[in-house]
Amino acid sequence: HVQLVESGGGLVQPGGSLRLSCSASGIDTTLYCVGWFRQAPGKEREAVAAAYTGGLESYYYADSVRGRFTMSQDTVGYTLYLQMNSLNPEDTAMYYCAAVSTSERSCLRGLRPSQYTYWGQGTQVTVS
Fold first, then answer.
1. Strand 123-127 and strand 10-12: pairing?
2. What is the rounded end-to-end Cα distance, in angstroms, of the chain?
3. What is the pLDDT of residue 76?
């Protein structure tokens, strides 16, 4: 049974930083695509970043966050991180982590939300 639990959201001023965490249990740490998504009120859920658990530190980033956000993985006990720097009000959203069993190639091309199987409950990030 896969379970994902996000934490680390909050209120931050423009230009500030936050680090989100996603604690994952029940996933095979060599065969899963894990990703971060966000959804602002009235907007569709969009991909932020993704990584393959069995990959060699290769990551997918959305154009809107590349260079500002950094995703990382701690394979001991498996925790996923999203370091967010230079935040601006457009980054305000509920942030979710997600996981799906798929190939590394598919994962790093960027998957749609509907292609992920498991989701956390989300953590709110507000930049104001």
1. parallel
2. 37
3. 78
Cβ atoms of 81 and 74 within 8 Å: the answer is yes
30: amino acid identity, one letter: T
Tokens at residue 57, please? 């530190």
- Would you give per-residue pLDDT tens digits along the chain (128 residues)? 889 999 999 999 999 999 999 999 888 767 889 999 999 999 999 999 999 887 667 889 999 999 999 999 887 778 999 999 999 999 999 999 999 999 889 998 889 999 999 999 999 999 99
Cα separations in angstroms, 127 against 7, 11, 85: 16, 6, 11
> Residue holding tokens 């896969």?
2
Strands 69-74, 59-61: parallel, antiparallel or unpaired by DSSP?
A: unpaired
Distances (CA, A) of 78 to 3, 12, 90, 99, 103: 11, 27, 29, 12, 19
- Spatial separation of the C-alpha atoms in residues 99 and 87, rounded to whole Å: 25
CB atoms within 10 A of CB 110: 15
User: Cβ distance 100 to 117 under 8 Å?
Assistant: yes
